[in-house]
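Message: I would value a second opinion on how I read folds in token form. Give me a protein, with the fold worked out from its sequence. Write it directly below this note and I will take it from there.
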Amino acid sequence: MFFKFFKFVGFIGPPSEKTIFLTDEEAEENYIGGVGDAIAGQFRILDIGYEYVEIGYTDPLFEGQSERVILAEWSTEEE
């Protein structure tokens, strides 16, 4: 997965706005964004569902490439 370093923390704000909170533990960065927002300089949030987020690249070279991941796969529990 190209965004392996992101961990899902939760949703922020009202459900109608679909805002997601992600963290990057390796770089100690946090990201808050909605559909269309760029995160970490090279990724874009394409869609946010109740149980998934779809992330693609901001670089036009990778247009059309994305991955949809079930948020349960980003468990915040210690492994």
The chain has no helices and seven strands. Confidence is low (pLDDT under 50) at residues 74-79. The radius of gyration is 12 Å. The longest strand covers residues 6-12.
